[in-house]
Design goal:
By secondary structure, the chain is α/β, with parallel strands linked by helices. Helix content is about 50%, strand content about 10%. It has 16 helices and nine strands. The strands form two sheets. It has a seven-stranded parallel sheet. The chain has a two-stranded antiparallel ribbon with strand order 2-3. The radius of gyration is 19 Å and the shape is globular. About 50% of the residues are buried. Bound molecules: coproporphyrinogen III. Coproporphyrinogen III binds next to strand 3.
């Protein structure tokens, strides 16, 4: 069936005159209406599990800006929580989880098939969104890629160099592989359920892929994503998949082809001109404006936005930031970016 939604057309490989646009973390703390709804929910995790309010914050940036896609409001750390890890958020600091250092720590986790009770409110959010989103807005579901989720589960928090995960991988590889296996299975089940509930596209966030080098990149960033994509495509062949191996650098080359992803998301560590030559030749790319422009705005935002749009204009492209928008961003700069992309 011919697609009419612009995001789905770009993901199918079509070069559009104006790239469709959405933004990572588009529902977030830079928006006063998000802060108000989060206050109503109590805290961030209560918001994630309150289907009505999670749908509401997902819709807020669509109402305000008319983005071409909306991304389900949830978090990549809900899957480890559903597997039995403790999870809480410390205001101003970030996530905290129970850690995995020993076989005993791993053995308390549940099998992948047991995640759906805990995650059923997320599937309900997807169903509400499919009813309430405008007809031309694409709904994107997501999960973390196994390596990135493993870095949080092992360390129990975000870490600047993913040191604890690297240490477990290098000193207890059999235990590390069990963590990765459980996450691969859980991610396949979780994303399948999002698709069955109505997600039209899914995205895998591998925020820490860049800390894997050489053969480790192949084993722990590329292979798991390839396995997840193969399993999802076997069940849902028509659902496009976006992979985001953040920080991959040269390893962006050939990543879509090697994993079966329909699109790779580019961080801001590569230039759009380089990506046009080396990555876009294999299909759709998404990205890659530095999110700092959403804080600073002005002429440099406009120039850099135009540079990216021009550089990627000869192939399929979805405009986005190179990483999530930050809480200190100015909502007016988001509008300026959108107007620049759409040429209005
Ligand atoms: O993009 C969206 O709008 C959809 C929702 C979404 C969130 N997190 C909501 C969120 C998505 C896709 C994510 C992904 C996510 N979560 C990633 C991968 C992408 C990336 O940013 O690298 C990671 C690593 C996480 C884990 C996570 N969640 C961290 C490290 C933090 C704390 C840091 C921070 O930005 O505060 C979160 C919290 C989080 N997830 C917030 C939001 C809107 C802020 C929570 C709040 O309202 O206080």
């Amino acid at each position: 069936m011919a697609q009419t939604k612009t995001i789905l057309r770009a993901l199918a490989g079509e070069t559009l005159e104006t790239p469709p646009i959405w933004m990572m973390r588009q529902a977030g703390r830079y928006l006063p209406e998000y802060r108000a709804t989060r206050g109503q929910a109590g805290d961030f995790l209560s918001l994630c599990y309150n289907s009505e309010l999670a749908a509401e914050v997902t819709l807020q940036p669509i109402r305000r800006y008319g983005f071409d896609a909306s991304i389900l409001f949830a978090d990549i750390l809900l899957l480890p929580q559903a597997l039995g890890a403790d999870l809480w958020f410390v205001t101003g600091e970030g996530p905290r989880l129970s850690t995995i250092q020993s076989q005993a720590d791993f053995d308390v986790l549940k099998p992948a098939s047991a995640i759906h009770d805990k995650l059923s409110p997320i599937y309900e959010t997807v169903r509400i969104l499919r009813r309430e989103l405008p007809a031309d807005t694409t709904l994107i579901g997501f999960a973390g890629a196994p390596w990135t989720v493993a870095t949080y589960m092992i360390a129990g928090r975000g870490t600047p160099d993913q040191g604890p995960a690297h240490a477990l991988k290098d000193t207890k590889p059999a235990l590390f592989d069990q963590v990765m296996e459980r996450l691969i299975e859980g991610t396949i089940d979780y994303l399948s359920m999002q698709i069955e509930a109505g997600a039209e596209v899914v995205k895998l966030f591998d925020s820490w892929a860049g800390s894997l080098k050489g053969a480790d990149f192949d084993r722990y960033a590329l292979e798991p994503v390839k396995r997840i994509i193969a399993a999802l495509k076997a069940k849902h062949p028509d659902t496009p998949i976006i992979a985001f191996p953040r920080g991959a650098g040269e390893r962006y080359i050939g990543f879509a082809e090697a994993t079966g992803a329909d699109c790779v998301a580019l961080d801001d560590g590569v230039t759009a001109a380089w990506a046009a030559e080396h990555v876009q030749k294999d299909g759709c790319v998404q990205g890659n404006l530095a999110s700092s422009h959403m804080v600073t705005g002005g002429q440099s935002l406009v120039e850099e936005t135009r540079r990216i749009v021009d550089a990627l204009s000869k192939g399929p492209h979805i405009f986005n930031l190179g990483h999530g928008i930050t809480p200190d961003a100015d909502p007016e700069n988001v509008q300026l970016m959108i107007d620049t992309v759409r040429g209005t």
